[in-house]
Amino acid sequence: MRLSRYFLPVLKETPSEASIVSHRLMLRAGMIKQEQAGIYSWLPLGFKVLQRLQQIVHEEQQRAGHIPLLMPTLQPAELWKESGRYDAYGAEMLRIKDRHDRDMLYGPTNEEMITDIFRQNIASYRDLPLTLYHIQWKFRDEIRPRFGVMRGREFLMKDGYNFDIDMDAALHAYNRHLVTYLRTYERMGLQAIPMRADGGPIGGDYTHEFLVLADTGESEVFYDSEITDLKFGDREIDFDSVDECRAVLEEFTSRYARTDETHDEALFNEIPEERRRTARGIEVGQIFYFGTKYSEAMGATVQNAAGENVPVHMGSHGIGVSRLLGAIIEASHDDKGIIWPEGVTPFHAGIVNLRQGDAEADAACEGLYKALRAKGLDPLYDDRDERAGAKFATMDLIGLPWRITVGPRGLKNGVVELTSRKTGESTEMAPEAAVEEIAKIYAGVL
Ligand code: P5A
Asked: What percentage of the chain carries pLDDT values higher than 90?
């Protein structure tokens, strides 16, 4: 993309309505625009990252054999009356009437609808196990929408639902989701720690939240510092293997890590004092096993091997996709702007032309732009007629991990400059070498 033709409405001033750094940076970098409290337009740069996050989520879900579908945002009230949640959900549910006076709602989650899809189509244990998921907009009329996309009213969620014949099989699905989530967050450059949590309005006592540690997080958390040494890395897991998935669960959940809802001071005090940590965290996902709560209420049964009709065992699993943008920025920025992890960056590298209009500099930039694209990379070329300082400030603000700086002086010696956004370190090299270097870096990114 050439910046002169892109739509990147960066702000010079720091917006006063934003109280945390990720919200300020998303507004300043022209990623989002607030339309109403907790409701945002996703401008091109923000939308690009949102799409990239969705792509990672899809890849990791499908790696585990989970099947994508798409349910609507609007749901009929009847389904929620069957489960008993229509009244229980209270003021957080946005209720709507259509022209025929039918009660509808903007879905805050999809347990009821997916259970309805299941019961109308599946009748035998032979069709299990089954995990269906979608990435869809949700609406929760939060009392205090705040921190930008972090606590929105309209927000994007990946929500998945497993259907299994019994509790053991459903717990395997639970463990499998935990494994997929570890890998998903690591690919996004995040450390998200699974912590014992509370079921809330979704239900079930078997539940973990995934938390990214950050001072601006809304949850208070308590954990054993040893847990932050754990990395999932690029290990290959056989998702059908009950033992392999359980081993990962045990590795990542055996140390003390809880949200304030489930915190147990006495247990916490058994950890050696120097390892006890109290911190704030951003909840970027949650997984639940709730057994037959919805299947019993809604009559979702299957015939088991003995020929009896039994309610199916279920769980649901959510990732806060739009919230993740805020979480990633909270975890990765400096006073100049965002620092995107390579796995989620909106553009792979920026090209800064220090002397737009200079025939040699222009030709070198064009050459780099085409060479990077030929390698399957997506560069952003700042070809505007602007001062070098302004170009650097924009690149630093929008946070692309790598920048190639091109100017007449370097070109005389046959070199351009490759700069890391994270470390600020620059190296001079031939333009072709810069292209190779960047291609090599991204070849190693999952
Ligand atoms: C699991 C999937 C559920 O809704 N039903 C389907 C279960 N879980 S949850 O924990 O309530 O939500 C899942 C994740 O969505 C994000 N989230 C939000 N993001 C932005 N703004 C909000 N208002 C908001 N509410 C929830 C969180 O990341 C949460 O973990």
From this structure: 96
Tell me if 187 CB under 6 Å of ligand 1.
no
- 362 alpha carbon to ligand 1 midpoint, in Å? 47
**Residue 327 falls inside a structural domain:** yes
> pLDDT at residue 87 above 80?
yes
* Domain end marker among 306, 337, 368: 337
> Do residues 430 and 415 lie in contact, with contact meaning Cβ atoms separated by under 8 Å?
yes
Q: What is the pTM of this model?
A: 0.97
In the chain, the number of structural domains is 2
Domain of 438 in residue numbering reads as 347-443
Task: Note the Cα 166 to chain centre separation in Å.
Answer: 30
* pLDDT, tens only, 211-237: 999 999 999 999 999 999 999 999 999
Residues 158 and 239 both lie in one domain: yes
* 227: in domain: yes
Q: Is the same domain home to 317 and 378?
A: no
Domain boundary (274, 306, 337) is at: 337
pLDDT band per the 50, 70, 90 thresholds, residue 15: confident
Residue in 253, 402, 429, 398 with CA at minimum distance from that of residue 336? 398
176 close to ligand 1 (CB < 6 Angstrom) = no
Q: Answer yes or no: is the C-beta of 316 below 6 A from any ligand 1 atom.
A: yes
Same domain, 242 and 98: yes
Measured from the Cα of 284, ligand 1's closest atom is 28
